[in-house]
Amino acid sequence: MSGLDIEVSVTPEFRDAESSDSESRYVFSYTVTVHNQSPHSVRLMARYWKITQGSGDSQEVRGKGVVGQQPLIGPGQRFRYTSRAILQTPVGVMEGAYTLLNTYTQRAFDVPVSPFRLAVPRQLH
After folding, report:
1. Rounded to two decimals, what is the model's pTM?
2. How many domains does the chain have?
3. Can you tell me where the transmembrane regions are (predicted)?
4. Torsion angle defined by CA atoms of residues 29, 83, 76 and 73, in that order, rounded to the nearest 10 degrees
5. Which of 32, 53, 39, 40 is nearest to 98 (CA)?
């Protein structure tokens, strides 16, 4: 099994009601779907995110699982969750990786998450 057997898609959304232009606080939610296209179950063990502000400043976030869980995703199944990121600029980029465990072989492997843009819609900014 390789990372090619796992598909990750991300849908970001600006949270206007939680954001404040005057405080340079821009809140985004992002919904991640992890689709296990392999013949074996996998457990999502850890996450890594690199969040880059529009200013070029970046921070890295690492942790166990996602949203307090280390979900088991069976063959053909999808796991979906929503989380948030708070930026100090109206535009930024996130990218990262998930560490998954093949429960059949007990081998861990990383699946990259392609960069995705967080941006305040033009009509709001």
Report:
1. 0.92
2. 1
3. none
4. 180
5. 32
Q: Rounded to 5 degrees, what angle do the CA atoms 40, 101, 105 make?
A: 60
The answer to whether the CB of 21 falls within 8 A of the CB of 125 is yes
Q: What is the CATH number of the domain that holds 73?
A: 2.60.40.1470
**In this structure, is residue 74 part of a structural domain?**
yes
Distance, CA of 87 to chain centre: 15
Could you list the residue range(s) of the whole structural domain that residue 41 is in? 4-115
Residue type, 113: V
Each residue of 41-82: pLDDT tens digit?
Answer: 999 999 999 999 999 999 999 999 999 999 999 999 999 999
Residue 92 lies inside a defined structural domain of this protein: yes
Per 3-state DSSP, what percentage of the chain is helix, strand, and coil (rounded to 5)?
5, 65, 30
